[in-house]
Design brief:
The complex is a heterodimer. Helix content of chain A is 35%, strand content 13%. By secondary structure, chain A is of the alpha/beta class. A ten-stranded mixed beta sheet of chain A has the order 7-6-5-4-8-1-9-10-2-11, with helices on both faces. A four-stranded antiparallel beta sheet of chain A has the order 15-16-17-18, with helices on one face. A two-stranded parallel sheet of chain A has the order 3-12. In chain A, helix 1 crosses helix 2, helix 7 packs parallel to helix 10 and helix 9 packs parallel to helix 12. Chain A is globular and about 100 Å long. In chain B, 78% of the residues lie in helices and 0% in strands. Chain B has one domain. Chains A and B meet through helix 5 and helix 17 of A and helix 4 of B.
């Protein structure tokens, strides 16, 4: 017998696909009528879990050696998507995830830390969520849901931009691009402190803070605060958004978790990349015989001395530990929901904002890296790596292994930067332990949530003001096994970040990665047969290339994509913006002093020359 | 040593004069090097007139200093370059301009060179 929620979902999807303008009441009425039941089925709770910088094969159901039993259980209780794509950088991904609108139209074409002054002159290039888009939280709140958030926001801290003003009723939010996982401390010099907010007000983290544990504790606290004690199933449904800090830099984890990964990575990144490819193939995540590109940033493991190999292996061990710690705390949330009788009526969505981070130091003990970490008061010794006060990251070489078998990583529009895990699970879903190889995109998550709970998407107006309509698509039919694909062979999805460009159409993708890592040329790949992007088809299929280039031109125009300034580079821009923010006043005082003293100096010199 | 210093002043002086003439003869070719898009009407008049005057004055002052041996001719050029670099920095800090390191760096280097020349090269009677 079909569970009530499953029937509700099915009907909601049928109605949704028939017309997005259908009102909530219509959906509910039709559901009750068609089922010939006096009462409507309960609307499901939604738990949206977002990992930060998690690579394609970083969790066990996607081929990882990292122990992630909670995520494996979720994968077994639903559908794992193998061809899901997101933005290559975090804030644009978050904007699209929460609104279903392309990041350029949503006001977040890049993270604000990477935007140049020239780009910032344009209203839609502020790197904060525009008021012209509506979040899924606002829509769910409007439909009677309780809405909670605990974790990284990174979509604006100005008035009107915090999550508490974007539809979330209870929040604990980190406004920055990242922060320490053990204490309230910034991780880059751009910030003078880690900017945490609770319900819209500045917030001081507790002494015993560890990010993954704390965030899950807060979500449980929020859910618990509105629970109907006598019968939790009667409680108002909730939407809980749980964007973890894991596994963003600084990569940190409790010692007990680190201990489990000591020795696991002693064979190096090439061995790990190969091992993950094999496991992903066994699991059906990628096809047999998929090729891999060896990134130019991947070092020769065998050429490293013993000391360096030992250090690199531990860097990755902390990374594995941080992923497992996140999974452990997701497990606590699941146990809580089961114990309170809410699990059966909850849908889980787990994904990552972008691919694995490849911007970690190649050698954290070189001069530049040491300067940065010591300026911030961090240490990076082997013994305490990943613990409180330690600054850790993985090298670009291990980032490639985390993205295995894909090319590139975060910040680039190769598959390694954009293809990440997506699991949608719940007791109510008919498919269990299934894989979907259909293409899907981050903008699809919001319309899918709305469809699953039977809420209409906003059109071009919401709350009496014009808004950008959702462009993502409902992938519910893939969950219900009523469709093989959502995007037909002609549909296109474009993405631009930092001047890198990509466009998907059917099984194909055109991609341009700018130098120095990319060659600045367009390439064409069949990402179904060749997700590793090893065989450029541009020469073999010139017509398709031209037609997709034209579609990308249209994408740029329709989404108001601005060119990057000459010589633009993310890291360089971040450094300039850091200088701009931190040294503005002292530099001005210095410059004005020089300006004032110059005429006096020249007068003095002339007087001395011609007494 | 002084000959080398004179040569180091002579080279940018020639470059400034050539650039100034370039502004007068083919502004469309040289404008992009300064991140400029040529305007029209009075805007174009100001762009060509001001930029040519700036470059030619710089170069002529430096050449005059070298030829006449009068140190005081270094100062207008030095002032122009130093204030340009300061202006560019303030434009970056307060007016959302790009930090034009490629332009600021030579300006600072040549201004410093002129300062050294004004102190080291002998004053002719």
């Amino acid at each position: 017998m079909m569970l009530p929620i499953a029937r509700g979902l099915l009907l909601a999807c049928i109605l949704w696909s028939g017309g997005s303008a259908a009102s909530t009441s219509l959906v509910e009425e039709a559901t009750a009528h068609l089922l010939n039941e006096p009462t409507q089925p309960p609307r499901p709770n939604i738990v949206l879990i977002l990992a930060d910088d998690l690579g394609f094969t970083d969790i066990a159901p996607y081929g990882s050696e990292i122990n992630t039993p909670s995520l494996t259980a979720l994968a077994e209780a639903g559908v794992s998507f193998t061809n899901y794509h997101t933005a290559a950088v975090c804030a644009p991904a978050r904007a699209m995830l929460l609104t279903g609108v392309d990041s350029h139209l949503a006001g977040v074409p890049n993270i604000p830390e990477f935007l140049s002054p020239e780009q910032r002159r344009h209203a839609h290039y502020q790197g904060v969520l525009g008021n012209n888009v509506v979040t899924v939280a606002t829509l769910l709140e409007g439909a009677g849901y309780h809405t909670y958030m605990a974790g990284k926001w990174h979509l604006g801290a100005e008035p009107g931009k915090l999550p508490s003003q974007r539809g979330f009723q209870r929040t604990v939010a980190l406004a920055d691009s990242g922060a320490d996982n053990w204490e309230q401390r910034p991780y880059i010099p751009l910030y003078d402190k880690a900017n945490w907010y609770a319900d819209g007000k500045e917030y001081q983290l507790p002494e015993d803070f560890y990010s993954s544990r704390f965030l899950v504790d807060k979500i449980i606290e929020f859910i618990d605060s509105n629970l109907v004690d006598s019968n939790p199933a009667d409680s108002t449904p909730f939407f809980a958004y749980l964007p973890f800090q894991a596994v963003h830099i600084p990569v940190q984890a409790p010692q007990a978790f680190i201990d489990r990964y000591m020795g696991v990575y002693d064979k190096g990144w090439d061995a790990l990349r190969q091992q993950r490819l094999l496991r992903a193939t066994e699991l059906g995540i990628v096809k047999q015989g998929v090729g891999m590109v060896r990134m130019p940033t991947t070092e020769d493991w065998d050429a490293l001395d013993d000391e360096r190999r030992r250090f690199e292996a531990k860097r990755m061990a902390v990374y594995g530990a941080m992923v497992e710690a996140m999974d452990f705390h997701i497990g606590r949330l699941i146990v809580y929901l089961k114990e309170t009788g809410q699990y059966d009526n909850t849908l889980f969505i787990f994904t990552s904002d972008n691919g694995a981070e490849g911007a970690g130091a190649v050698d954290p003990n070189d001069f530049d890296s040491n300067m940065m970490t010591s300026t911030l008061g961090y240490r990076n010794d082997y013994e305490t790596l990943g613990l409180k006060g330690s600054y850790n990251s993985i090298s670009p070489s291990f980032a490639s292994a985390a993205a295995s078998p894909l090319a590139y990583y975060k910040s680039y529009v190769g598959e390694g930067g954009m293809r990440v895990p997506l699991i949608i699970a719940g007791e109510a879903l008919p498919l269990k332990g299934a894989l979907s190889h259909a293409f899907s995109f981050v903008t699809d998550i919001t319309p899918t949530i709305l469809s699953l709970v039977g809420i209409p998407a906003p059109g071009e107006r919401h709350g009496g003001r014009p808004v950008e309509p959702i462009t993502g698509r409902d992938i519910g039919p893939l969950l219900l096994n009523t469709a093989d694909r959502i995007y037909d062979a002609d549909a296109t999805v474009g993405h631009e970040i930092s001047g890198h460009g990509a466009l998907y159409q059917g099984d194909y993708k055109i991609v341009l990665n700018r130098p120095p890592l990319g060659d600045g040329q367009w390439h064409l790949f069949n990402i179904v047969e060749d997700p590793g992007e090893t065989r450029d088809l541009a020469g073999e299929m010139p017509q398709r290339l031209q037609q997709m280039l034209s579609a990308y031109e249209n994408y740029q125009q329709e989404h108001k994509v601005l060119p990057v300034p000459a010589g633009f580079d993310n890291v360089k821009q971040l450094m300039l913006n850091t200088l701009h923010t931190g040294l503005r006043t002292p530099v001005l005082v210095l410059l004005l002093t020089v300006l004032l003293l110059l005429p006096f100096y020249i007068a003095y010199r002339i007087k001395n020359t011609h007494p | 040593m002084n000959k080398i210093l004179k040569l180091l002043v002579l080279l940018p002086a020639i470059l400034f004069i050539v650039t100034g003439l370039h502004w007068l003869v083919a502004p469309a070719e040289v404008a992009p090097k300064f991140g400029l898009t040529l305007d029209h009407g009075v805007g174009l008049s100001s762009q060509v007139g001001d930029m040519a005057a700036y470059m030619l004055t710089l170069g002529i002052c430096m050449l005059t200093a070298l030829v006449s041996g009068r140190r005081s001719w270094y100062y207008p050029a030095m002032l122009l370059l130093a204030i340009t670099a300061i202006g560019r920095s303030i434009a970056w800090l307060f007016h959302d301009a790009a930090l034009a390191v490629d332009l600021i760096a030579p300006e600072v280097v040549v201004a410093t060179l002129l300062l050294i020349a004004s102190r080291r090269l002998p004053e002719k009677d």
